[in-house]
Amino acid sequence: MAKMTLTVLGSGSAYPSEKRFNTSHILSIDDKNFMIDCGEGAQIKLRQYKIKTHNLNHIFISHLHGDHCFGLIGLISTFAMLNRKSNLYIHAHADLEKILQPQIDYFCQQMPYQVVFNPINPRKNTVIFEDKTIQISTIPLKHSIPSCGFLFEEKTKNRHLIADKIDFYQIPVKQLHLIKRGADFITTDGELIPNSALTHEAEKPKRFAYCSDTIALSKNIPLLHDIDGLYHEATFAESEKDRAKETFHSTALQAAEIATKANAGKLIIGHYSARYGKVDKLVEEAKTVFNNTFAAEDGSVFEI
Amino acid sequence: MAKMTLTVLGSGSAYPSEKRFNTSHILSIDDKNFMIDCGEGAQIKLRQYKIKTHNLNHIFISHLHGDHCFGLIGLISTFAMLNRKSNLYIHAHADLEKILQPQIDYFCQQMPYQVVFNPINPRKNTVIFEDKTIQISTIPLKHSIPSCGFLFEEKTKNRHLIADKIDFYQIPVKQLHLIKRGADFITTDGELIPNSALTHEAEKPKRFAYCSDTIALSKNIPLLHDIDGLYHEATFAESEKDRAKETFHSTALQAAEIATKANAGKLIIGHYSARYGKVDKLVEEAKTVFNNTFAAEDGSVFEI
User: Fold this and answer.
1) Active site residue A298
2) Which one of A15, A40, A65 has the shortest CB-CB distance to B40?
3) Pick from A169, A185, A200: which residue ends a domain?
4) Residues A78 and A106 in one domain
5) B43 shares its domain with B168
6) Residue range(s) defining the domain that contains residue B273
7) How sure is the predictor about A2, in pLDDT bands with cuts at 50, 70 and 90?
8) Each residue of B106-133: pLDDT tens digit?
9) Distance from CA of B197 to the nearest CA of A (A)
10) pLDDT reading at B18 higher than 90
11) Which end of chain A is more exposed for a tag (fewer CB within 10 A), N or C?
12) Count of A–B CB contacts within 8 Å?
């Protein structure tokens, strides 16, 4: 089963501080690192938390507010100075390329690697990346500007062969591939051996969703259903519910309601307004409806 | 006499780390704050060190390498969110406006204040700002791209009247203005009273110079002569002298030689290569030729 962890590089929202940098996260899936949002100073946190970047090839930007993307040019520039060779893919609203490419051209002359922009459509759940083991798609959100979350899903895994049954029925090696994927077996005598007699179930593929910045959206529940880990923004406490609505953000309680309806395994809240030094109150409010709630802090690491 | 202090927001060079942010400084002259360079995360340090920004109206950018200017867009954007009203003047190479204005237009819609770019000529010592009490001019430097330092000079102050002499000679109030500026006085009997009998000398105006990034340049010695405080980059130790030359940087010893030749009051070195965790060796090397050397660290405050 894949090891999936979320490291919080920045748990703050609009205003960065020493305690809370702007939004940025690393989702590690086995040996791959994916960056989600890249606020100012994200590269400093990568160094501080000793996170490897040779295996960081994809950055996902939820929306083009500065607190989610001002760290990109510094990171890109540092990678250039470090003589990075492999492509860096940035999945973001199409406007990002227009803003960032001129900066890259100016500040990173003689780029030793390529920044590849993948313009995404934030309005529709769309697969934006996949490889053999993982698929990443957008989650449409609702914010003051186009915004989307990201759904990280392990692909369905092969079933586990039961060795002594495979031996007993003398199943040819060339058929094992199909049996791992659920096929039954027919013996030379014409007897059908059901797959369930030959294999154990595969582990359930892990799923993680990132939803920020957004008002809490019930329409995404089907997409998020049975999610193992849900990061949902919780910019405000319930007392600031009106402010949350005005600014297209969520309260901690609203985030927890989404987690409950989605039957999530774990809820991680973050992207707190600078008015909250400690966020105990937000966690408490969330726990009234979804007990398995955790607070993102800069440097937190969560197992998904 | 003006109180002049330099606060180091970032003492690092190309690669930022938790211990050393990219280059940025605040020079405070009485109640005015001036920012010199603005590396990524400068706004975080301003918050951390509780530096007021209502009186920060001028930012001076030495050259357009990212480690000296990537913090600008975050700072400008935060000022906009905080509903700043007063103009922010950025004194920098003309290219900065071309790079930064599109970002401001995109990220800071409905700007409540104006960012005014003052394009500077880094090749010639030129006054780029003055008010009643201070004058700021460029110092031509030599780096891999156009680069200049900045010379902050208090204006000449009025001499101090000696009250009992003023009374004794019954000098009319309307003449005091001239006498403060050094005029002699002629009594009604035609007797000349020399100014030195009527006034004490004014305090020597303070002067501070910032030289980064650059190779150590003797040609600037006349400009820097008798400087009270000199900040000079010292990216490398003497063992990396060749590397310093190649990359158009200075060693700590070279910085100290400039301080000695300029008869500086105090030398502050900084902008260290990331290879140096502690910089004791650099300070030691500098002190062999200029004893009054101090090492910039993030958060250091130096009286000039």
Assistant:
1) no
2) A40
3) A200
4) yes
5) no
6) 4-157+203-303
7) confident
8) 999 889 999 999 999 999 999 999 999 9
9) 56
10) no
11) N
12) 82
Annotated active-site residue in A37, A67, A213, A298? A67
Judging contacts by C-beta atoms under 8 Å, the chain B residues touching residue A84 are none
- Percent of chain A predicted with pLDDT > 90: 94
- Contact of B286 with chain A, judged by CB distance below 8 Å, is answered with no
How many helices (H) and strands (E) chain B has is answered by: 9, 18
- What mean pLDDT comes out for the span A146-165? 94
- CATH code for the domain of A237: 3.60.15.10
pLDDT digits (tens, 9 = 90+) for A43-59: 999 999 999 999 999 99
- Residue A277 and residue A170 share a domain: no
**Interfacial A residues in 19-48 facing B (CB < 8 Å):** 21-22, 40-41, 43-44, 47-48
Q: Tokens representing A243?
A: 């402010």
Contact state of A21 with B44 under an 8 Å Cβ cutoff: yes
Q: What is the reported pTM?
A: 0.92
Same domain, B24 and B120: yes
* Number of domains present in the structure of chain A: 2
Tell me the pLDDT tens digit for each residue of B169-188: 999 999 999 999 999 999 98
**Per-residue DSSP letter, A21:** P
Residue A82: what residue type? L
For residue B1, what pLDDT band results from cuts at 50, 70 and 90?
low
Count helices and strands in chain A by DSSP H and E runs: 9, 18
CB-closest option in B44, B64, B77 to A66 = B77
List of residues 6+ apart from B246 with CB closer than 8 A: none
List alpha helices for chain B, DSSP H: 42-48, 72-81, 95-107, 163-168, 173-180, 221-224, 241-246, 252-261, 280-287
Residues B277 and B176 in one domain: no
ipTM of the complex: 0.91
Q: Quote the tokens at residue B206.
A: 């303070």
Q: How far apart are CA A296 and CA A190, in angstroms?
A: 58
CB contact under 8 A, B14 and A65: no
Closest CA to B22 of B43, B3, B6: B43
The beta-carbon neighbor of A15 closest among B71, B78, B95 is B78
In the structure, what pLDDT confidence band is assigned to residue A1 with cuts at 50, 70 and 90?
low
pLDDT digits (tens, 9 = 90+) for B60-70: 999 999 999 99
Task: Say if residue B208 is in the same domain as residue B250.
Answer: yes
Chain B residues inside the 8 Å CB shell of A107: 64-66
Q: Are residues A67 and A149 in the same domain?
A: yes
